[in-house]
Amino acid sequence: MKPLKIVNTNMDPAALSPLRQQSSCAPKACSCTTEAAPALHDEKALRGARWIEGAIDTPAGRVPVVSTAWKAADRLGQVRARVSSFRMKYAIDPGLYAVGRPGMDSDVYVSANYKLSFDVLRRALAGKDAWILVLDTGGINVWCAAGKGTFGTTELVNRIKVSRLAEMVRHRRVIAPQLGAVGVDADAVKRETGFAVRFGPVRAADIPAYVSAGYKKTDAMRRVRFTVLDRLALTPMELRPAVKPYLVFALAMLAVSGLAPEGILFRQAFSGALPLLVLGLAALFAGAVVTPVLLPVIPFRSFAVKGLVAGAALVVPIVLYSGMFEGADAALLAASYVFFPLVSSYLALQFTGASTYTGMTGVKKELRYALPVYIGGSIVSAIGLIAHNLLVRGII
Amino acid sequence: MKYLKNVTTLTYTGEKCTGCGRCVDVCPHAVFAMIGGKAAVLDRDLCMECGACQRNCSAGAISVDAGVGCASAIIRGKLTGSEPVCGCSEGGGACC
Lengths: 396, 96
Ligand code: SF4
Ligand code: SF4
Description:
- The complex is a heterodimer.
- Chain A has 16 helices and 10 strands.
- Chain A folds into 2 domains: 13-222, Rossmann fold (3-Layer(aba) Sandwich); 228-392, no CATH class.
- Chain A is α/β, with parallel strands linked by helices.
- At the A-B interface, α6, α12 and α16 of A face α1, α2 and α3 of B.
- The structure holds iron/sulfur cluster (2 copies).
């Protein structure tokens, strides 16, 4: 077999040029199409990607070389991806990439085309010569994509073929992240491509230790964790969807409290709604921040009950001791005690989507009990609120 | 951290096990261990029904009703009458 020809692996930004040439050069003057290997990537998609630092020509085509260091642009993208819906578009071009100067015997690591998954992998491969085979998961991380099946047997088989991996390496094995096993049937991939799938560590950061141990995982490398920092990092994503409903709730409360025969009275609206808006914020905080962060400490296993406990723990003291509810009628107190802990419970139940240990059957069971309670509780609270407003205005 | 007791749909048929060890290798919650050359279930309540073990057990010794343990996905599934799937690609989903 022909050895790989290294075209360019230096850090010079001009190193990008082999990748750019084909799409930008004029047809008649184009030297690249005659002598360079065909590109394996959609070059438009890669243009301007600062994490690419060169290219290697292989018998099968030209492969971009990626940096193993994170630049400011990478970090900025990671922060934005965590707090906004921008995350959805954070995809890279699928296909084969190179780290260092890989050759026919170098390892092949499989990743998703969600840039964060790819970023942690390339950083973990610092100092190594390796191939990265990026699957098209629609810009979704490995675990979620494996659950959907996009990080799956079919895509891996297809990607091995279209990237002509069999021509790049002499060996017949790829290393996939362990969580990809949810979607990848290793035996089927072997049958269809000849490549054996080894499931590597759950976390890319463990790859150096895994490799130096002779491709052996420790039990800890197999386990999915859910540390307080993991949970804290997820809270913005829990709060974000709650913002709009909260604003709707706030407007509704202001309107209801301010309603008078002569229109909506602002002072009355504000003073009447304020205690409820404060409790609303407390409920959001209890369900979307306190419950996730203190998850193992809060009693009970059910997320709905955990959220209820956290919600009550915040709501009850506010009602009792803040002074905002002094002289409040029983209808308002009842509505507050029922509604806000339930909001917290509902938000906490949503956190099952981000947690790494809740199963579908369990969540379905929770929902069977919780949904009727949420609906019933909302009706009771609405009645309480109406009664309170009628009492305030001396109608009943 | 453990979720609800005794809800997982995981079943394991020891007679079919060939002792390949794949289930131990892929399970993210250490539900399985190899004991005497065969797989054994250590703690069912740790199972999150991800389905990795079933997909990679070529002996067909494992069955689990795999799916997403995500409340909003399940509610959406109920409303649309489809299988619950992770909402990551839908844009607004709070998950993952
Ligand atoms: S994957 Fe199946 S055959 Fe292999 S050890 Fe586990 S149960 Fe046994
Ligand atoms: S379904 Fe997932 S969590 Fe449950 S035993 Fe299998 S691999 Fe482990």
